Amino acid sequence: MGFYSIFIQTHNTCSPTTALEQKEVKTALTPEDVTLLSIGARTIDLGRVCVYSKCVRSLNFANDLPFNVQATLVIANQELRGTSPESQVVPPGAIAGFYVLFVSDIAQQFQGQILVQANGATVFSVSVRAEVIPLSLDLNTQEVTLAFPSGNLGRTMAETSWITNPGNHPADFEGERDHSMMCVAIGVMIGSRTIRDGEPIDTSLLQEAPPLPTEDQDVTIQGTTNANTTASISASSKQASPGPGLDRMLRVDCFFITRQRGTVPAFGTLSVNITFDPTSLPQPPPNYSALCSMHVDGGGDKALRITGEVAES
């Protein structure tokens, strides 16, 4: 879910600058003084958030005393260290706004706290809670069947699968062959033009992508996008991506999957095309079936079984 906060815009300084401010922020507060201070929230519940996502909430501190007060946040939890500013001088009758930033790099049930000090004395404690879940991507199906209808003389069949990100942080994924199964051919292919959903790929024009160099040097990759146009790109080993107009593709036996890797935006959806080309193998296997795995950075893997069916002649 998304988070919306209203921030109090202030022009307070982080430390006393005038002689009067320096004197007043050293004033010891009495219990009666503390009753004239207030905090916007005693509990911040962020709900369910994803690993690596940044969640921001506002925390307002009001000073109804007739003199300046220095409000300071004391934070012990690493997940809240991005909260700012650490301290503000709050004039009489003014409100200070703090930005509470939460980021976690592990899945956990988080419970932390922020201590709020006024002139060096702790006056409030704010608890922060969050359920941090791993990054996850959902497939619209766990099994895809590509079947040639009777009488269809085409060489390839294609279908579109959809990947959805239900989380509040972009998720990177990469497809790979499931290594528990034997495959006739495996590799990352390069050279297919960007395709529309469900459009077959001309697999005869694809070329196997060479391995990346171990050192930072130029590498040239060539691929044919159509019958009359040859595209070439140059890149360093740090940026050896296909470039505009070319897709990286995962080949598993006679199945071609594009995109082979990508990023699904928060709450977004991305399409993946799967092409079945039984003619791409020199010898047909007993059955056309493969198992692919989609690895999600910061999360778990998802399996996709692909089956091809060829009509009997």
TrEMBL record:
GO terms for biological process: cilium assembly. This is Uncharacterized protein. One of its GO terms (cellular component) is cilium. InterPro entries: Ig-like_fold (IPR013783).
